[in-house]
């Protein structure tokens, strides 16, 4: 099973670079749905991802319908939105099939008709809407992918150093 991080029309190069680094560290596949608000070779994107770009599997999609054609089981597509009724921690991410986590554009999220169609697949991170509009996209991706990995017992990730070399004294 693989976790897939899907960004719909990302606008901010630093967010995408940080998310690419998270994908490299978690063996997650990164999907970018066009149009992008930057060039992938932009210095800001490259700097945020540092030297991890060659360690990330990136798949590009021309638009949302084209991306959806690549999802083998639409039930494993988790649409992340602050308007969802189900918290991300209420979902079960342990499956024989791959998980796809779809995140909207930083400024406008996902298209409303799409959100209505996939409301059953929607998850959210609880937050205080009185103080902020939304959490940072790269932070949101990290929270959700690590919850999925925690439930999956961190497959393919080296945990031994946590117990042997880096013990707190």
From TrEMBL:
<feature type="binding site">
    <location>
        <position position="125"/>
    </location>
    <ligand>
        <name>S-adenosyl-L-methionine</name>
    </ligand>
</feature>
<protein>
    <recommendedName>
        <fullName>Putative tRNA (cytidine(34)-2'-O)-methyltransferase</fullName>
        <ecNumber>2.1.1.207</ecNumber>
    </recommendedName>
</protein>
<feature type="binding site">
    <location>
        <position position="80"/>
    </location>
    <ligand>
        <name>S-adenosyl-L-methionine</name>
    </ligand>
</feature>
<keyword id="KW-0819">tRNA processing</keyword>
<dbReference type="GO" id="GO:0005737">
    <property type="term" value="C:cytoplasm"/>
</dbReference>
<keyword id="KW-0963">Cytoplasm</keyword>
<dbReference type="GO" id="GO:0003723">
    <property type="term" value="F:RNA binding"/>
</dbReference>
<dbReference type="InterPro" id="IPR001537">
    <property type="entry name" value="SpoU_MeTrfase"/>
</dbReference>
<feature type="binding site">
    <location>
        <position position="104"/>
    </location>
    <ligand>
        <name>S-adenosyl-L-methionine</name>
    </ligand>
</feature>
<dbReference type="InterPro" id="IPR029026">
    <property type="entry name" value="tRNA_m1G_MTases_N"/>
</dbReference>
<dbReference type="GO" id="GO:0042802">
    <property type="term" value="F:identical protein binding"/>
</dbReference>
<dbReference type="GO" id="GO:0141098">
    <property type="term" value="F:tRNA (cytidine(34)-2'-O)-methyltransferase activity"/>
</dbReference>
<keyword id="KW-0489">Methyltransferase</keyword>
<comment type="function">
    <text>Could methylate the ribose at the nucleotide 34 wobble position in tRNA.</text>
</comment>
<keyword id="KW-0949">S-adenosyl-L-methionine</keyword>
<dbReference type="InterPro" id="IPR016914">
    <property type="entry name" value="TrmL"/>
</dbReference>
<comment type="similarity">
    <text>Belongs to the class IV-like SAM-binding methyltransferase superfamily. RNA methyltransferase TrmH family. TrmL subfamily.</text>
</comment>
<feature type="domain" description="tRNA/rRNA methyltransferase SpoU type">
    <location>
        <begin position="4"/>
        <end position="146"/>
    </location>
</feature>
<dbReference type="InterPro" id="IPR029028">
    <property type="entry name" value="Alpha/beta_knot_MTases"/>
</dbReference>
<keyword id="KW-0808">Transferase</keyword>
<dbReference type="GO" id="GO:0141102">
    <property type="term" value="F:tRNA (5-carboxymethylaminomethyluridine(34)-2'-O)-methyltransferase activity"/>
</dbReference>
<dbReference type="GO" id="GO:0002130">
    <property type="term" value="P:wobble position ribose methylation"/>
</dbReference>
<dbReference type="Pfam" id="PF00588">
    <property type="entry name" value="SpoU_methylase"/>
</dbReference>
């Amino acid at each position: 099973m693989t976790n897939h991080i899907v960004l719909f029309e990302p606008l901010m190069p630093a967010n995408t670079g940080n998310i690419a680094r998270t994908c490299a560290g978690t063996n997650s596949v990164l999907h970018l749905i066009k149009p992008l608000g930057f060039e992938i070779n932009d210095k800001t994107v490259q700097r945020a991802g540092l030297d991890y770009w060659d360690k990330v599997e990136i798949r590009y999609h021309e638009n949302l319908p084209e991306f959806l054609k690549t999802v083998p089981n639409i039930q494993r597509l988790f649409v992340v939105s602050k308007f969802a009724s189900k918290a991300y921690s209420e979902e079960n991410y342990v499956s024989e099939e791959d998980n796809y986590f779809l995140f909207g554009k930083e400024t406008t999220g996902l298209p409303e008709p799409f959100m209505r169609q996939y409301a059953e697949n929607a998850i959210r991170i609880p937050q205080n809407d009185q103080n902020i509009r939304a959490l940072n996209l790269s932070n949101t991706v990290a929270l959700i992918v690590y919850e999925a990995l925690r439930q999956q017992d961190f497959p393919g990730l080296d945990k031994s150093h946590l117990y042997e070399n880096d013990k707190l004294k």
